[in-house]
Design brief:
With about 190 residues, this protein is α+β, with helices and mostly antiparallel strands. It has one domain. The protein is built from two helices and six strands; from the N terminus they run H-H-E-E-E-E-E-E. Strand 5 and strand 6 form a beta hairpin. The longest helix is centred in the first third of the chain and has 50 residues. It is rod-shaped and about 120 Å long.
Amino acid sequence: MLTNPHSACSFITHTQVSSSDRLNDQSEQGFTLIELIVFIVVISLALTGLFSVFNQSMLNSIDPIIRVRALELAQSKLDEVLVRKFAENTPAGGVPACGSFDFRPPPLFVQAPCTAIQGVVADPARDDVGDYNGENTADGGYAIAVVVSEQGTELGLASDGLARRVTVTVTMPDAETLTLSGYKVNF
């Protein structure tokens, strides 16, 4: 409807808005409730997966520290045992070997003073490898067990009594075990 076509500010028009135009205007205004719910579900699933991976990685990052500590304890105990003499009667320095012949210049071929190797017998002196057999200690939640056995034939020697296997087992706080073994030979 047009009133006074020559007047600049008295121009009024009526336009009709179709129903399809109204739908287009609504879709540009925001998200529907269903779209928001789907978005929230997708994001929550993604975050759940991300947090479970993060949690597992945090648990596994502590695991190497526990294992390294167990390995340090086992190696320390194994070194402590293997630095000792082979047997109670072994001379200082281990030479000549127990039960061997001391080849001194003739006519003195004498057998080394420790002719009878006592076997693996623990005593409180802790001066030979066998003294540690059956030792059980604890260190900050780690249990350390030592077993010493005669195992010379494992190394291809003539008799089991010529070598001793020292086995150190460390039980970690999570009940896993770590085992190290070493040999002390009657040389």
